[in-house]
C-alpha cells in the first residue's frame, strides 16, 4: 500500500532539487581563445567518396595558415554572456561577428547581434574544456551522416 501511494504522488517525494536556469558561461569557458586547427570526426566508417570530400584543400590551407601565424581566428567569450568571433587572413581582417551566448548541458548557444547569416553555427557542442584547450564540435552536413567538424582553440 505504501509503494502504491508513493507511486501515485511522485511530486511529494524528496529528491534532487529542480535544475536552476542554465549557466550563462562557466569561468573555465570565458576568455579569449585562438583557433589552432579544424578537423573532421566521423563516428562511422566512411566510403572512399566521403573521405575524398573531407580531404578539403581549403581546410588544409587554413590549418597551415593558422600554424604559421598567417591567419588568425579568435573567439572571445565574456562571462556575462557576450561573444566576439573574428577571422583575419594574410590580407587582413576578413570577417567579424558579435552577439550573445549561453552555455547549457555541454552546448554553447550563440545568437549573433546582426542576425543570420552567421559565421558560426547557433549550437556548438563542447567536446573538451580545460584551462588552456577548448574543442567545439558541430554537425558537418546532414547530422544523420554522423560526421562533425571540430574546432580546436587554445587560450590566449
Weakly predicted, low-confidence segments: 1-18
Could you say which overall geometry the principal axes of the C-alpha atoms support?
A: globular
Estimated share of beta-strand residues? 35-45%
SS summary, helix count: 3
Report the structural category: alpha+beta
Helix content: 10-25%
Could you name the CATH topology? Lipocalin
The radius of gyration computed from the alpha-carbon positions, rounded to a whole number of angstroms, is 20 Å
User: Main β-sheet: number of strands, strand sense, barrel status?
Assistant: 8 strands, antiparallel, barrel
- The CATH homologous superfamily is named Calycin beta-barrel core domain
Q: What is the domain tally?
A: 1
What is the overall pLDDT average?
85
Number of strands: 8
Strand order of the largest sheet: 1-2-3-4-5-6-7-8
* Terminus-to-terminus distance: 62 Å
Along the chain, the helix and strand elements come as: HEHHEEEEEEE
- CATH architecture descriptor text: Beta Barrel
- The first-level CATH class is given as Mainly Beta
Which keywords apply here?
3 helices; Lipocalin; 156 residues; disordered N terminus; eight-stranded antiparallel β-barrel; alpha+beta; 8 strands
Mind explaining what this structure looks like?
The chain is of the alpha+beta class and 156 residues long. The protein has one domain: Lipocalin (Beta Barrel). 17% of the residues lie in helices and 44% in strands. An 8-stranded antiparallel β-barrel has the order 1-2-3-4-5-6-7-8. A hairpin with a 3-residue loop joins β6 (123-129) and β7. It is globular and about 45 Å long.
Amino acid at each position: 500500500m505504501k509503494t502504491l501511494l508513493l507511486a501515485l504522488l511522485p511530486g511529494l517525494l524528496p529528491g534532487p532539487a529542480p535544475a536552476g536556469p542554465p549557466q550563462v558561461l562557466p569561468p573555465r569557458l570565458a576568455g579569449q581563445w585562438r583557433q589552432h586547427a579544424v578537423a573532421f570526426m566521423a563516428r562511422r566508417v566512411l566510403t572512399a567518396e566521403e573521405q575524398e570530400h573531407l580531404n578539403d584543400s581549403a581546410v588544409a590551407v587554413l590549418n597551415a595558415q593558422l600554424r604559421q601565424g598567417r591567419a588568425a581566428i579568435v573567439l572571445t567569450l565574456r562571462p556575462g554572456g557576450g561573444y566576439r568571433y573574428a577571422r583575419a587572413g594574410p590580407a587582413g581582417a576578413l570577417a567579424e561577428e558579435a552577439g550573445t551566448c549561453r552555455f547549457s548541458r555541454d552546448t554553447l548557444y550563440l545568437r549573433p547581434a546582426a542576425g543570420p547569416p552567421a559565421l558560426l553555427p547557433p549550437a556548438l557542442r563542447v567536446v573538451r574544456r580545460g584551462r588552456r584547450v577548448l574543442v567545439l564540435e558541430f554537425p558537418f552536413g546532414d547530422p544523420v551522416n554522423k560526421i562533425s567538424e571540430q574546432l580546436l582553440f587554445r587560450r590566449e
